[in-house]
Amino acid sequence: MPRAQPAVDVTVVGGGIAGSALAGKLAAHGLDVLVLEKSLLFRDRVRGETLMPWGVAEARRLGLEETLLRAGGSYAGAMVACGDGVSYAQAGDTGIDLSTAIPGIPGPLNVGHPDASTALLEHAAASGAHLVREAQNIRVHPGEPGAVTYEAAGERHQVRSRMIVGADGRHSTTRRQAGISLTTSTPRTYCAGLLLGGLPWPTGENAAATEGDAHYLAFPRRSGLVRTYVFWAAARGNQLRGPDAVQRYLGLLKELPLPAGCDPLSAIPKGPCAVLPMNDSWIGTGVNIPGLVLIGDAAGWSDPLIGQGLSIALRDARSVAEALTADRNWPPDIFHPYHAERSERMRRLRISAHIATELRCTFSDEGRRRRRSWNRTAQRDVRLSGPLLGNLAGPETVPAEAFDASNIGRIIAFGHR
Ligand SMILES: Cc1cc2nc3c(=O)[nH]c(=O)nc-3n(C[C@H](O)[C@H](O)[C@H](O)COP(=O)(O)OP(=O)(O)OC[C@H]3O[C@@H](n4cnc5c(N)ncnc54)[C@H](O)[C@@H]3O)c2cc1C
């Protein structure tokens, strides 16, 4: 028999970015919140480490910006976009100012994913959430009220819970147990990521470049560490399979335009090198299970090429927190506004990821033509720049026409002769 625990208002399964942000907010509003996190310590899983300006705005609204800065976070006020024959030094002179995307937000915030997760979970606990780490074999039984059973420290527990939140990431067991199906798109690219030390990378400057048949992104932190990712065409599959993945990754990076003095072959790897297919996923519209809601990656993710997942997680946390604290009666359609807003937000981001892939990760003459023409014209036409600008300021800030099929067609056609 599981040991019965006192009932709680909300059980959050997964104490990562989304779950901890939500738990902290709810606990601060006086709700009884239990967080079940399966890991004992957060480790580097090669996840998101730059929070876009609209995500910083969400963090600020949740009261978490300082927490992320104290966790080692620092702002990148500029983006150096080089490649296609333009060196880092040449492009650096005309770096893109990221501090103007949202007035009052200094730019994207770069922070280690394990550091951010740890800090947000500690913040949730300090706000009054009950925390169980190394929670195993969680079973969710949504209902009115629902219940959750789990194992911790060798004992099985049962807790009645008015609301269950699935915040357990991409491979969400909450989603699976609730019978919610996930649709995934075909991978557009593959991406490998590695955290590097020992490089004199300029802090405060994120970087992106497409050269030859690879694209890279780099997010330096004030500690001197740089999170790097390299992308290549999906048709090539996992080209780093094997024991020398780190060396081959560094070899790929060396072929790309980097800041002066940054030789990847002399860098110090500071974490694992993981390779992942880049795609989007989503759950059906109209999913409404009384007593249960999914947030963050568990509810479907955005292609990491466009770096939106952390911002999405914080927006989800804020939306669900606002719903649960506005009216303690929790009517059956309580999450209708959240689901509707999220569905449109993710639709726009899927289009944005498609366009970003066509622009940055199409390694052909057509791709190079598209990049050149788009770079020349996009600044003058918000419909052309909009799908990517929305990644900085938030997808809802862009005119809806920017996501129309005809506009997408216009952007793709830039590559045609
Ligand atoms: C290669 C790559 C690069 C990325 N780059 C960026 C980027 O630059 N910017 C950006 O914004 N986003 C990026 N993302 C996306 C971002 O990392 C995620 O969208 C974000 O971490 C989602 O937060 P989450 O809280 O939903 O999930 P997670 O951060 O994965 O947290 C889920 C938590 O649930 C816990 N958990 C899992 N299963 C269980 C269980 N059964 N029981 C209890 N606990 C469980 C996990 O231990 C974890 O702590 C990237 C993703 C990838 C893969």
Automatic annotation (TrEMBL):
InterPro entries per record: FAD-bd (IPR002938), FAD/NAD-bd_sf (IPR036188), PheA/TfdB_FAD_monoxygenase (IPR050631)
MF terms (GO), sorted A to Z: FAD binding; oxidoreductase activity
Keyword Ligase: no
Keywords, sorted A to Z: NAD, Oxidoreductase
Domain of life, per lineage: Bacteria
Short name of one Pfam family: FAD_binding_3
Residue intervals of the FAD-binding domain: 8-348
Presence of keyword NAD: yes
Name of the protein described by the UniProt record: NAD(P)-binding protein
Higher taxonomy: Bacteria, Bacillati, Actinomycetota, Actinomycetes, Kitasatosporales
